[in-house]
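Dear Dr. V.,

Thank you for agreeing to look over these. As mentioned in my earlier message, I'm a first-year student in the group and I'm still getting used to reading structure tokens, so any feedback on how I've presented them would be very welcome. I ran two proteins. I've put each sequence directly above its structure. The first is here:
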Amino acid sequence: MAQHIVIICGYGSVLTQDIKRYLDHVVGFCNRERPEAIIFPGGFAHKGIASDRSEPAAMIEYVGPLLNVIPFIYAGDGSYTTMGNIKNIAKFLKQYDIPQNGTAITIFCEASEKRIIELLARRFLGPTTHVKSVSWNPESAFPRMIMNIYTWMAIRIPSLDKLLHHARVWQFSDK
């Protein structure tokens, strides 16, 4: 039974120096805390733009050799949104009968997403989830703030979540 699970949010399949610094921070945490499982959510949100590999595949390729802990759990390759990632993780934990109460869950994300990840985690993963953020994104936080507002609304109106998912699928499809 897993006592501690770490979830590492991804930000594209092309690992910039900023993203590598973020992942290095997460690796340091994992090597200190030694979680039993690491979940790499994500999907192909940037497929065709920069790479044909998934976000989890890119992160595992970079992070794997740096970790002093062995267990990995790779979850999700079909999500296009932050909410989709968190929902997929909740389904994954339930599918493998991993209790959300009594299991420490730590989610790493970019600082501009921390509040919405906390909201999603409480909603879908339970109140004991801890969210740690690393500020690495040099771009304006304004687009992310708009997306966070939309995500907040989609939690309350499920049809908005479906609409956003389909819009992202179309946006990143091979058209």
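The second protein is here, in the same arrangement:
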Amino acid sequence: MMGYAADVTVIVPTLNRARFVSKMLQVFEELGFQGHVLIGDSSVPEQVQQTAQAVSQIRNFRVIHRTFPGKKVFECIAELIPFIETPYTVWMCDDDMLIPRTLESCARFLEQHPDYSAVGGVAIALELDPDQLTQALAASRYRVDAIEDDWASDRLRRLLADYTVTGYALSRTEQFVKRFHPSVHEGLTDVTFGTELLPSWMHVVQGKVAMLGQLFVVRLKHGRHYLFPDAFDWITNSGWGRSYEIVRDCLAQEIAARDRCSLDEAQTVVKQAIWGYVGKVLVRQWRGRGWATHEPRTVKTQLKTVPGLSTARAGVQGVRQYLQRSRDRRLGYSLSTLMNGSSPYAQDFQSVYRLITQRELDESTDASKRQPEFLTTGREWNDTVTS
């Protein structure tokens, strides 16, 4: 046994982004990851082959690569549950780069703190040139907050009042399975609920969520993300109502058990929290698109008609952005501080940065023309199977 280093499974659903999966595997190999990686692949055949080629190059940790054509993210995760053999599990997007030694610290933390359901750490967003994915443009803090209230209902309220994505944090495997087991998602068709919201919300209902002061993940920004739908289209799609009911009942049952309250009381808590969240999302998107052209005549709306005020508002916004960039530099989140070594996260970040910005020698080679020797190379448990 190698301490906690071998006790972690990382699940990676992917869709047509073999290049990022390859980089992720390189990062783990270079930084000494000793756990397991389970890849659920919904990609087209050429991309599946490229990922399989990357898997074949791994020598120092276990990788299982399974294909699930047409499956949603949360369905891929559920399909991979039978392959989990470690006490701790995390899932990540295929363009996120986790730091192995922080994962080990997180596993140790969960062992020592039974009232916590999950733990992550510092997240940094690295912006890449969308035309040259090996060129970094900027770095900034990706905000993820700890949620440490004593009651499950209070933790859910706090998270949804000022939402950050807690779902990408290390959990005990039994709690992870409870969030993604097929029985949980039975009848759930909404991708937004199934992929991000329900798992993140269940995190905080199951227990407290901590964020360590170590670099946990570098999240890549590259203009090729799969985006969730427009908020209005989201809540008016045909499957939303039923999906909401499944999410509400799942959360309410967990809250009722943990807070020892009635199911009706728990459902009221969940309904208030979710509708508060949805209401803010709708208002924010409405205003962000400039559609709020018939606002009530209030002091605020009248001030908008004052000559020169829009220029002043733009100036204020510019000042806010400057202050945010200054704060990032001061706290070590900016690219300059991360690269010059003054950031407390510099060592781990630079290891990832070097691999992300490294150009591949065969980058332009058509992977579909390669011979399929990858099916039999590498350790025997680094396998690729088409399901």
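From my reading of the second output: The domain at 8-281+334-358 is CATH 3.90.550.10 (Spore Coat Polysaccharide Biosynthesis Protein SpsA; Chain A). DSSP finds 15 helices and ten strands in the chain. Does that match how you would interpret it?

Kind regards,
E.
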